[in-house]
Amino acid sequence: MINVNENHPYFELAQVFEAAFNQAAVGKGKERHAYSEDEPYQYQVLCEVDRRLRGNADGPLYQAVKKIYESARMDPQRAIHELLGAINYTAAAVILLKEKLDQKETPEEHICLEKHKLYDRFMEIQKKTVKTAAEKKEKTDCASCPLSQIDTTKKEEVSTELDDLFDDNFGVDQTKSSKLELGE
Fold first, then answer.
1. What separation in angstroms does the CA of 87 have from each of 32, 41, 125, 176, 181?
2. pLDDT of residue 77
3. What are the contacts of 24-29 at 24+ separation with CB within 8 A?
4. For residues 98 and 166, what is the distance between their CA atoms, to the nearest angstrom?
5. How large a percentage of the chain has pLDDT more than 70?
6. If you average pLDDT over every residue of the chain, what do you get?
7. What residues contact residue 101 under an 8 Å CB cut-off, 6+ apart?
8. Is residue 152 scored above 70 in pLDDT?
9. CB 90 within 8 A of CB 63
10. Three-class DSSP category at 24
């Protein structure tokens, strides 16, 4: 990550930051905070909860201080692990504070944009379903296959595809949270 050689005066610091990164990206931090394999750090629960409750960095800062205090009562190996966690919580606080300075896309705006993408995909699926149903009706001219019946049979398939798209984008199981309604 940080490209410094052993002779660099900050080599030891770079190693500590790399260990903290690894803890967050592949270790305990990722297991506890990431909902999916590819959820970006800045959208994980350690940042998101604070955004939703206060909109500032108090949550991660509290966690960092708590870990620092707890490390004083631990053996060196456990203390190192705890202090690496404190570094990661401090990084989350920096991210939250930078968001305020940068005025960049907030997680809420990110989610809103993703919902618009999902809606566009839903409409694309619906149009394809309606077109397919219309073609079937046109070819067969069968009164027993009205457009609405074919559309209804596709609702579950469309719902499943949207749930999968939502899972891929947000790392949550839509069947356990608010499910997108498809006019049922």
1. 16, 14, 45, 33, 42
2. 96
3. 24/88, 24/91, 28/81, 28/85, 29/85, 29/88
4. 27
5. 59
6. 74
7. none
8. no
9. no
10. helix
